[in-house]
Amino acid sequence: MALVEPPRKQYKRIDELARPKPLPAGFIEDKRSVYSESKIVKANHQAPTKFILTNRLEQLCEPKPYHYDFAQDRPSPKWPVTPAAQKATASSVVENLARPKAIHRDWVEGRPVQTVVKSSAKKANASERLLQLSAPKKCAANVVMEEPETPYNEGISQINPAALKAVASSRIETLAQEKQTHQSYQPPCPVQSIVNPKTMKAKASAHIVQLARPKDRKELEENPNVWKVTAGAKAAQASQRINELAAPIPRKVRAKKAAPPV
Questions:
Q1: 3-class state of residue 11 by DSSP
Q2: Spans of the chain below 50 pLDDT
């Protein structure tokens, strides 16, 4: 009889990820610190370092002293009451002042959050008028539902034949007329300007063509010193009238102060 070999288990990535992380070489369990050496602490190890406070630290550790004017007035939190005060009798004025303030005559206590219904109201019977008012509103007889009837259909009102043949009075016709626009009303300009066909076929005159032509700068090209000031203009002298107009206003003239001698 031949033995049947069991099927091999298929290798899966998740089996490899499920394996625990192996311990590193030289691992010692229950180390005192992750920063300590990987050695067992000996029993005869040295004592820890002894710390010594400086004079400044000792001075800072001292409690804050009391103020030089401090006086301990109350030796105990209990306030002693004299025997005479314990046997004192209050006067009429003190008794009047000790009475609580009376409530205003119009004061009403706040209503509770939950409404309390009386037992008589629970047993009350509605009258015929209340039953009539609580009934739902009935649809008008002249409303016919569209075919086929569905919850989303709207009713169609049936108009009386006499109302179809009715003639409106002059007053109703006057009120039914639309409101006239103002006599100065102008409609808004269209977004797209409409050009007159005659304007599109118009021809510019010789004068318009001359004005539309850009200014020539031939003088600058032919004579680069066109802005040069002539010698005659440099030697010119202003007339008496120009000097008079160029003078500042007398009320705004302020005399200059001489500098003090050094």
A1: coil
A2: 1, 38
